[in-house]
Design brief:
The chain has 301 residues and is of the alpha/beta class. It contains eleven helices and seven strands. Helix 1 packs parallel to helix 11 and helix 6 runs parallel beside helix 10. The longest helix is centred in the C-terminal third of the chain and has 29 residues. It starts with 14 loop residues before the first strand and ends with a helix.
Length: 301
């Protein structure tokens, strides 16, 4: 089964700063950085590269195929899926998580929640999307997405793991029952006909969702996490040379992430999430709220 992402060229614009692997279940966190131009994050370069994946993320393969000869209409339909960019603070994180899971992790999308929205005022609960990943040993993982864009890195991590705990245990903040991971699996199964899967592919995906002992592979639940957080360069850094500025920013975010590793381990322990693999993508922003709005405006208008 192929990736839905037509091109991963956008990865060439981000700078991959660091990778940390921890625990025995393949947990990994990758730190990326926006391109820097003249001591500023160059969001315009990212907007240009993210224009193409919008349709891959926002609409199903089936709908894309129906507009194969109408690229301008396809673009309009895809962009209309997004909510009003000034009001919604989560969709950029969902979109970037999709891009990294497909473009970096090579985990094909089964579906995204955005493609299920029938109007821009509709919110869909649950994970931000579902992908699957084939492992080196021939087994598979269903990768459920969770994204948080919050100014404070530790707070974003906390909220992400808390949401995953509630999603897995199907409870809300008050401990009351709500739809969660089992509902999500039923949702995938019920919507397989909404994609361009062949009968063989639908059979395979059904086996991923509801594996049996007859199969020659195992399936485990995993989680993909996007964390967008804010950094604030000092006045001294802003006035430094371009080379010194880049070095200072890179050293700053690497240090922040390194300090966060123990926190992540504690969150896994606190919420009893052992046994799951976590694929975390961390990306710092300068002036997070404004940057988020500008990027969303750039790719949807």
């Amino acid at each position: 089964m192929e990736l839905s992402l037509a091109s991963s060229d956008f990865l060439k614009v981000f700078k991959h700063l660091d990778t940390h692997e921890f625990s025995k279940t393949g947990n990994k966190i990758d730190l990326f950085l926006f391109p820097i131009n003249s001591n500023k994050f160059d969001y315009n370069r990212i907007i240009n590269e993210l224009m193409e994946p919008v349709a891959d993320f926002a609409i199903s393969r089936k709908v894309k195929n129906s507009y194969a000869n109408k690229p301008m209409t396809l673009s309009k339909v895809a962009r209309e899926k997004f909510l009003e960019y000034k009001k919604n603070t989560g969709e950029l994180g969902e979109f970037l998580l999709y891009c990294f899971l497909e473009g970096h992790l090579n985990a094909p999308k089964i579906f995204s929640k955005l493609e299920m929205k029938t109007s821009t005022s509709m919110y869909v609960n649950g994970s931000d999307g579902v992908h699957f990943l084939k492992l080196a040993d021939g087994n598979f993982q269903l990768v459920f997405g969770e994204s948080k864009t919050i100014k404070e890195l530790g707070g974003a991590m906390y909220d992400a793991f808390k949401s995953i705990y509630q999603f897995k245990n199907e409870i809300n903040d008050k401990g009351d029952t709500k739809s969660g991971i089992n509902f999500e699996k039923r949702l995938i199964s019920d919507n397989l006909d909404h994609e361009t899967w062949t009968e063989k592919e639908k059979e395979f995906l059904t086996k991923l969702i509801y594996p049996t002992s007859d199969e020659d592979f195992e399936v485990d639940d995993a989680f993909g996490i996007f964390i967008g957080f804010q950094i604030t360069p000092t006045d001294e850094q802003k006035r430094s040379s371009n080379s010194d500025y880049r070095k200072a920013i890179e050293a700053n975010v690497k240090l922040q992430l390194t300090k966060e590793l123990k926190h992540i381990e504690k969150l896994i322990e606190r919420y009893d999430l052992f046994g799951h693999s976590f694929y975390i993508y961390a990306l710092p922003f300068i002036e997070l709220d404004k940057a988020r709005e500008d990027i969303m405006k750039g790719i949807t208008t």
